[in-house]
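Changelog entry: the dTDP-4-amino-4,6-dideoxygalactose transaminase record was regenerated in this release. Current contents:
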Amino acid sequence: MGSSQTDGGYGLNVTPTGLAEQRLLLGDQIDQAIARVLAHGQFILGPEVTQLEQRLADFCGARHCVTCASGTDALQLLLMAEGVGPGDAVFVPAFSFVATAEIVPLVGAVPIFVDVSADSFNMDPSSLEAAIGLATRLGLRPRCVIAVDLFGQPADYDAIDAVAAPHGLTVIADAAQSFGASRHGRAVGTLGHHTATSFYPTKPLSCYGDGGAIFTDDDHVADLLRSLRVHGQGRSKNDNIRVGLNSRLDTIQAAILLAKLDLFPQEILERQARARRYSEGLGDILRVPEVQEGASSVWAQYTLVLQDRDELAALCRQAGIPAAVYYPVPLHAQPGYRRFPATPTGLTNAEWLAKHVISLPIHPYLDAETQDAIMQTVRRGLQAVGKLSLDAQYA
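Regenerated structure tokens:
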């Protein structure tokens, strides 16, 4: 059970990620996987890494999977493989984690911020079109789009491609929160030209540290990535044919991910069941998140949009519910990023969502009793302050 209850739903002790419950279910498998690595001693790019890359590629149907040290590195390695640099523009959503934007200036390029849809939280193609025009007027070369699959649902890649293709842009899917989802029968990992994902402990498929992976069907890009992640290595470690990074996935993390991957398909179904249960239990009083037609979500977060977000957050803290706010300051308003341009049509939705979203705990091991207590707390709390309504006037 994921909680202990007192005071009619208050005094909960809700686990935010379900990692402890997952560990119990896996039993000794993780310990045995780590022990095998300790026995063979190939701690960096050992055999488990190769096995994991093949299994991940098979899972989503990509031709290549190249693992690396983090989801952030996965994005940077892709920009490096695409030759993005000074004078280039890369289009990123303003409502996302900072990693999506930070890798752009790190390669010498300019991030241009794009607005998101208020319904899906993902990149708005019309805003992207305006941002591309701005880049051209600024004398920048439009090169790449990084479309984030926020909270577990893939972005609308067909619509994004329709805007990007006439300009020759490479579309990179930032799937840090969406690996395991799909859109129109195609799995995440095959929706963009290339895909980056993360195995950070809070992600749907996670390791016990940092880790990431890149998916691509491009043989040349895959070869570049394998070189770039090991200091630009050529035929040997002392043959450095290009400037690269130190971004290798360690073998222990690969072994952990292999053990967890066996559970992953069922965990996706369990996440989807918990999301449906939230929507059924709260849909009469709140606007609940929707999955777009033809898409699926892995529900990395179950995110509500509320006029009274801050009051609900305080009530959840009081009740012992780890509700979270992602992301309270949009990227274009962060001090390190204010100097970079933004789409001329504005970032209204990104700014609104930053002030009004709140995510309830969701994971495959969230039991019904605990989830009921969470929903009771949300209902009771909002009724107490007399604010059950969503402000529907945002853009």
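The chain has two domains: 25-261, 264-385.
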